[in-house]
């Protein structure tokens, strides 16, 4: 089953995606904008990561594909808590030439639609490094997420500490956004 947005398709990550994912995994310009710690990784490591994807029901990762363009990134729903109906969400657009064209917004909206309308989750969480103002703008001003807190001096980058912005959205927030923006109005899905 693929998840269709207005501009993107979220699908399973396939073995044929690994060369491009490996390239992005070793691009410091991409990873400085994301949380977590990253080491240079080999293609062998990438294959082992891929082999473990299908067995993990609490951590779902998707390829982000744009029709006519191809693979442009990945997104996820991880640390899924089925008892309390919440999950952590992240997105990484690796293809630099597609940025600023609405693919990130559509990816986030598509993940929210799947999480809230299909999985019946109650909330999603994410974190943003304080200097990633592009992501902060997309999540808060375009996709309805709320800044729920700050963890000071959380990330260490370029020989200094940066704050971690805690972001969240609830089912009610999502449905209010969709009603106000008519985001899915032209969609038949």
How is this fold's topology laid out?
Blueprint: E1 3-4, E2 9-12, H1 18-25, H2 28-31, H3 43-53, E3 60-66, E4 70-81, E5 86-93, H4 103-118, E6 123-129, H5 133-142, E7 146-157, E8 160-170, H6 171-181
Parallel strand pairs: 5-6
Antiparallel strand pairs: 1-2, 2-3, 3-4, 4-5, 6-8, 7-8
Please describe what this structure looks like.
Residues 8-168 form the N-acetyltransferase domain. It comes from Hymenobacter glacieicola. This is N-acetyltransferase. With 189 residues, the protein is an alpha+beta fold. The chain has a single domain, classed as Gcn5-related N-acetyltransferase (GNAT) (Aminopeptidase, 3-Layer(aba) Sandwich), CATH 3.40.630.30. The protein is built from six helices and eight strands. It has helices at 18-25, 28-31, 43-53, 103-118, 133-142, 171-181; strands at 3-4, 9-12, 60-66, 70-81, 86-93, 123-129, 146-157, 160-170. The chain has an eight-stranded mixed beta sheet. Strand 3 (60-66) and strand 4 form a beta hairpin. The mean pLDDT is 92.
